[in-house]
Amino acid sequence: MNNQKVLVLFAHGARDPRWAQPFERLQTLAQAQQPDITVRLAFLELMEPRLPALTAELVAAGCEQMHIVPVFLGQGGHVLRDLPLILDELRVAYPGLSVKVSDAVGESPAVLTAIADYCVQTLHTNM
């Protein structure tokens, strides 16, 4: 771990391991932009590491601050219900750990603009 602060990209998870590839690329891109911060992936279900296991690993390695970004298009049930329950458990288990959670990436105007730009650009490509 590069330091005591970690950026965690939190995704749903899937049975097919290929599903994680875009998230792994996202992790690589984020890490390249912030080489002094450790960037990790965690999953809600079906893939490893899940957020509780990753948090245990990070705390054991000296992590004191964890910033979680839900890599979901919207603030649906997993972000609004499941994630807060996990966070409550983590805060009890690791009272010295500072945890900050951002809105889901799909709530960002910049992200939505980038997706819209991509969608419109597909109209002008050869299919």
Could you give a short description of this structure?
By secondary structure, the protein is of the alpha/beta class. It is 42% helix and 18% strand. Helix 1 (21-33) links the parallel strand 1 (5-11) and strand 2 (38-43).
Description of the molecule:
By secondary structure, this protein is of the alpha/beta class. It has one domain (5-124): Rossmann fold. The chain contains four helices and four strands; from the N terminus they run E-H-E-H-E-H-E-H. The chain has helices spanning 21-33, 51-60, 77-93, 109-121; strands spanning 5-11, 38-43, 65-70, 98-101. The protein has a four-stranded parallel β-sheet with strand order 2-1-3-4, sandwiched between helices. The protein is globular, with a radius of gyration of 16 Å. The mean pLDDT is 92.
Key structural traits:
127 residues, alpha/beta, Rossmann fold, 4 helices
